[in-house]
Amino acid sequence: MTASSHPKRGADVLHDPVLNKGTAFTDAERDALGLRGLLPPRVMSQDEQLARILPGVRGKDSPIEQYSYLVALHDRNVTLFYRLVMDHLEELMPVLYTPTVGQACQEFGRIFRRSRGMYVTADDRGRVAEVLENWPVDDVRMIVVTDGERILGLGDLGANGMGIPIGKLTLYTACAGISPHQCLPITIDVGTDNTDLRESHAYLGLRQPRLRGPAYDELLDEFVEAVQKRFPLTCLQFEDFGNHNAFALLERWRDRICTFNDDIQGTAAVALAGLYSSSRLTGTPLKDMRLLFLGAGEAGIGIGDLVVEALVEEGVPLEVARKQCWFVDSKGLVVQSRTDLQEHKQRYAHDHAPVADLLAAVEELKPHAIIGVSGTPATFTAQVLAAMARNHARPVVLALSNPTSKAECTALQAYQGTDGRAIFASGSPFAPVTYKGKTHVPGQGNNSYIFPGVGLGVIVSESTRVTDEMFAAAAKTLAEMVTQDDLDMGRIFPSLSRIREVSAAIAIEVATIAFERGLARCERPADLAAAVAAAMYEPNYTSAI
User: Fold this and answer.
1) Catalytic: which of 67, 82, 168, 406?
2) E strand map for 124-232
3) Is 323 a residue of the active site?
């Protein structure tokens, strides 16, 4: 685009975060775009800009202040923001997503400066399509949407839940190179039942109780149908809905549109990958593992379902596969004799005497792995961990609840409670632990290993669906990328420094499935790996004239 045809000039260029390069505008660009005098005279390279701002991030007093600093950078200069994040992903991911994003949602009203994404509200019933027309970009390929009812393990945060779609889409770009211009965060504000939040002077959402029942369902139907018309090639990811709505929305739409629920399916894939990897340390293959879940909501049932699918693919009969997965909820072991079970739990209600709590279930069932997805902290107690260690030489302990404050146990507790023998991974990051002279590097079972690559594969193939087969393939691919060096240090996931490599490999597998199953809306490229690589956004400045 030449200067004469550029739609913006002068201060308008500097105020557009997509166009703005700040001090990196060259002398020629400054003259052509009317920027002379509007910037300090020194022309800096992108690397010089990074060297200037990185100390500013590191100099903040707390992660939430770092988060605010990074959000402000994004609001000024999208390209520089993503260059910084990609170059320092291991350092900045915990700031931009779990665990800090939970606090960011709680304090969303305080730190809000500039709107990102879209809000569809209960008051927009009957005109959702009209609202979506206001988004200025037509070629949206990835939408993350929440209604804010179950934000991480923090509960109902209403419109403040917007921090989750924003953070998730940041990772789509940083981890898999999906162009930020093709990403759209959306919050469906139907009110909140969090009265403290609703009455807060800083709350930015509707000040009313949650819309529920048929009116809610009608709004969501209208929203999904409007999305299909406005953005026909988009993948719609549901995020942090309450259990009932999450399962219902997935079942309603999964076979009709390109959609998935990361809490159910993404968590399942990363957990399955962790189980595959742990089997290389324990010597027990997945088909011989007995799994015990603490928590029978979206994440737990999602993991169970994907494990069962993987076992059936290996030739294990369906009912046998289901009996390898046991669940403990707030009322004890999920068994057939209970009359209080929701529908999604019933397929895992096995014929067994009632068991009151997790410890008793561990002692009774002797599981190879315990998987925490309860959102209830400190539930993998010393007694539970000791029981796991008595039953198995290398017990698998996955404390996957987020944020860190909700983890079922810490890495230190896991290693101490099992005399250093646990194979441990968590949802939020924990630092390495030295126990009895050996340093253990805990893996982080972060969904960002899975969903960015899945999204990239869907975009490259223009798939009409996101299937469980794709998530199972993503899990296998992730597990295969765990090196022996990773395992030797106790880590059952690859280093986050390899996340773009992981995402590209997963994208190739996902796109392959889309093409082979007739789900793709474009022709298969002759070199799929090259097509995936070419689709990955790199945040480098280009000439503005």
Assistant:
1) 168
2) 142-146, 183-189
3) no
Band (113; pLDDT cuts 50, 70, 90): confident
Last residue of a domain, one of 240, 257, 274: 257
- Do 120 and 231 have their domain in common? yes
Amino acid 187 reads T
Residue-number span of the structural domain to which 501 is assigned: 449-517
User: In this structure, are 300 and 440 located in the same domain?
Assistant: yes
What phi, psi does 353 have (nearest 5°)? -65, 150
pLDDT tens digit string along 186-222?
Answer: 999 999 999 999 999 999 999 999 999 999 999 999 9
Query: Between β-strands 332-333 and 259-261, what pairing exists: parallel, antiparallel or unpaired?
Result: unpaired
Q: What's the confidence (pLDDT) of residue 2?
A: 45
Residue 213 belongs to domain with CATH number: 3.40.50.10380
Query: Residue 226: helix, strand or coil by DSSP?
Result: helix
Co-location of 168 and 55 in the same domain:
no
Which of 162, 114, 118, 164 shows the shortest CA–CA distance to 140? 118
Residues 6+ apart with CB under 8 A from 387: 359, 362, 363
Judgement on whether residues 85 and 146 belong to the same structural domain of the protein: no
The active-site residue out of 67, 82, 97, 541 is 97
**DSSP label of 523:** P
Told to judge if 168 belongs to the known catalytic residues of this protein, a careful annotator would answer: yes
State the Cα–Cα distance between residues 15 and 396, nearest whole angstrom: 51
Which CATH number covers residue 64?
1.20.1370.30
pTM of the model: 0.93
| Confidence class for position 77, pLDDT limits 50, 70, 90 | very high
